[in-house]
Design goal:
By secondary structure, the protein is mainly alpha-helical. The chain contains five helices and no strands. The longest helix has 28 residues. The model has no long low-confidence stretch (mean pLDDT 83).
Length: 152
């Protein structure tokens, strides 16, 4: 017996981890391709009686809405940047698979079969596709802090 340093890596829940990555990629598509609905200030008069607090307090509805809109837009852009950066670090085959299958505008209408039979040139088998996809998901899960561990 030598002085070997050994440790056990925690076991990853593949199904839950894959779901977490797919959810993040769906969120990415929503943020990337759907325009952000900005909140608008209500400027119509209200017939409700309003009871005011101390007169030295002000309410800046327009200011808080503008801040919310800016914060939400920044959060969306930051999230998209983070996902794109993680995907760009993947090896070529994995990056191609993720971009074609999960990040395009057409994703909702693509199946895995469409991707491995028609997008890859030459086409690849379903088994090879699954291996490449899991490797990509595993790396994305690590990079995006989405790994789900199995309960012991």
């Amino acid at each position: 017996m030598g002085n070997q340093l050994s440790f056990m890596l925690p076991e990853i829940d593949r199904k839950e981890t894959q779901q977490a990555v797919e959810d993040a990629l769906e969120r990415y598509r929503l943020f990337k391709y759907l325009s952000f609905e900005e909140r608008e200030a209500s400027i119509t008069a209200s017939s409700e009686v309003r009871y005011h607090g101390p007169t030295n307090e002000t309410s800046d509805q327009t200011g808080s809405i503008a801040a919310y809109n800016v914060d939400q837009e920044k959060m969306r852009k930051d999230f998209c940047f983070h996902v794109e950066r993680a995907v760009s670090r993947l090896p070529k085959m994995e990056r191609f698979l993720i971009e074609e299958r999960y990040m395009s505008l057409e994703t909702e209408y693509l199946t895995d079969y469409n991707v491995y039979s028609f997008k890859f040139q030459p086409p690849i088998s379903e088994k090879t596709y699954s291996k490449i996809r899991w490797k990509a998901f595993y790396k994305l899960a690590l990079n995006l802090s989405l790994v789900v561990l199995k309960n012991s």
